[in-house]
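Here's what a typical entry looks like (Kinetochore protein Spc24):
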Amino acid sequence: GDEREDDGVPSAAYVTQLYYKISRIDWDYEVEPARIKGIHYGPDIAQPINMDSSHHSRCFISDYLWSLVPTAW
């Protein structure tokens, strides 16, 4: 399929798929803005993510989410 729009920018659907392939996180976009919610599909188990971003620093959240991403390619 054509994964790029006319201006050469990848489509939102393509970018979302790419993020999922890398992070294995399926985000829940229906929650209120401050909540970070989804499911991380790790190599062994599926682990729910459910955080209130108003209770954590952005650095903590970023570090936590990156810690879920496997480093072996």
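The domain at 12-68 is CATH 3.30.160.570 (Double Stranded RNA Binding Domain).

More examples are in the samples folder.
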